[in-house]
Amino acid sequence: MTAAPRRAAATPRGAAEATAAGRPARAIGAAPRRAEHPRLARLLHRHHRPAAAVAVAAVATLAGLALPNLAPGGPSAVPAGTLPRLWTPTTPASPDSVTTFYAAGAFATPQTGGMRMVPSMRGPLTGKVIVIDPGHNGRYSRSINERNYYTYGAGWRPCVQAGTTTYTNVTEHTIVWQVANRVVPLLLARGATVVLTRPDDDGYGPCNNERPEIANREGASLFLSLHVDGNEDKTLRGFYVAHSTKMAGGEGVQAASAAAAQIVARHLLNRTSLPGSNYVGQPGNPVYVRTDLAVLDGIRGAPAVLIESGNSRSPADVAYLTGADTQQEYAAALAAAAEEIVLTLPADLAAGPSSASPAAPPEASRPPTTSTPSPLPTATPAPVASPSP
Fold first, then answer.
1. pLDDT, mean of residues 153-162
2. Which of 75, 99, 189, 251 has the fewest CB atoms found within 10 Å of its own CB?
3. CATH code matching the domain that covers 96-383, chosen among 3.40.50.10260, 3.40.630.40, 3.20.20.70, 3.40.630.30
């Protein structure tokens, strides 16, 4: 969720807060916790060993979603012939074909640098870097989240907000983390190198000034930031795609981002049953210009958009965004949109960041014993040097 009028109130979560089951929130399809599987714990903590994948999300069987799958309304009509013919993988990336690297500050407080997944298989997106930014994160501390940082375009802003919570008490950060877990294997299977701005759903940050810098350092071809809106009027529903006209990269990347927003909206309208927003944008064109979003404004080289995936107070939207089948449908549409964007829109891969990767303690490149690492294809943690500015 990003700032907008009449948001649903966010519920900050303390560092030690547990779920109703008495345990910290755990990502869907996540690897078992370290205390439960000592052998996996030892494997994940072997530093400076050859990277070998040790886990992969089963994209079709993600446990833990028990909310009713209500039937949402249909999308605005767009002629099917407008969709390009895209290469579609029949299977997600396999565990032994993806190598994961954690940045030096991936598990710092707040997190920095993210995690990079590199597939060995080839596809239409081989050599391309796509950054997926699941908004917010699982932990909240006033001293961390409310600390102000200078951001390009938006000025001094708090590190990162807690995000919204649905009327069924599902947090925004959990929904977008689950969606990201479904999108990433589809992109890896297309040959793309994929970077997640955060490696788990149980940490602090990254701050909103750091998230775009991750894309800048990685030489990204695309930056997708995933969110859920929080308008308290339950009759308002649907997704919208935001882009910025005040980006660090200037007019070229702003124009590419505007075109990327249209591509994402078209794919979501054509490939999902999630309708376009009935309260932001225009009928049939749920695209919106924002100039106060640090995660977009700070981008220097890649087309970048932020997607408000639905309204957390709409029963139909919540059912769609928390249903296993509909999450997968949504992820497939995002992956198809990402492929079209990367193959058709320009990106300045040499733009570089405005700042070097923040310093972090040596242990911050390794998952702590209390962390829930990504259930995506993962490897023995290894710090990865960020490209030079």
1. 91
2. 251
3. 3.40.630.40
